[in-house]
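Structure ticket #2291
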Amino acid sequence: MSQEPQGLVERTEQHQIAMYLGAMALGGLLGWAAPAVGPGLELAINPVLGALLFVTFLQVPAGELFRSLRDGRFLSAALVVNFAVVPAVVAAMFAFLPADQAVRIGVLLVLLCPCVDYVIVFSGLAGGDSRRLLAATPLLLVVQMLLLPGLLYLFMGPSLADIVEAGPFLEAFLFLIVIPLVLAWALQAWAARTPAGQKVSDAATTTMVPLMAATLITVVASQVPKLGGSLGDVAAVIPFYAAFLVVMALAGRVVARLFRLDAPASRAVVFTGATRNSLVVLPLALALPDELAVAAVVVVTQTLVEVIGMVAYVRLIPRLVPEREPLTA
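Resolution: structure written out below.
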């Protein structure tokens, strides 16, 4: 009797890229045809995103997380590519960004934070070591939340203190990271003790793809009505996002070679350096003052570019980092 649901789960996983693209198209159509639904859907972003991250963390056994902290070379490579190389790349393009302050804040928010959700899916599709990347996810989340305020200050200067408040950052960290992580570990403990807990855990993990699609629909549909007269400014950042994907593919490969990683781990490093945390930082952009509302749309635009770019990545990264990639730097 369990074969039919399992078959459905397998089919959704096989066609997840098409589902994500379809979800974004549906969200764009919904936001354009019924802009009045935008405010209501915006309220649903945090709950649906929290559920998505809960399912993501559920796949990281607590014991494996602590063991992953001893995986020195992979973790070092992931930290270097995300928190040394990426800020340098962003700094190189920052002067060429549109002068609008909201646009610049949106670009900084999204590009300075590594992805923690669908990067695992896309990395796995390209033959990357998703398990190691998944285990490193909580560490990447904590580090980016600690460093983001300082990085924003470096790029935007003292005036940023009058715009960005610490409250939304702390709220996002609590409701999107701490609570989902604690709930996921609590369910893992229940699953380890009882068959009922194991059934609940197994059922929850099958919702990853539908939750990702629901998140994309909700996010895109809620932000499309905000475009208004800012379409030109938003469109102007698309080439920067595309260039970022190209540069980080090459930079990630270089970093992986410097740390002498094998091919699966190298591909995971490339993906973590290229994919950004648009969904998690979106609540931070939404908390900005009304005059900076376009920052949220700039963040969502990066998601649209990135998901399309991931379709190319899944096909090209295995060629850029072949299976028999030499381990010498």
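Closing remark: Confidence is low (pLDDT under 50) at residues 325-329.
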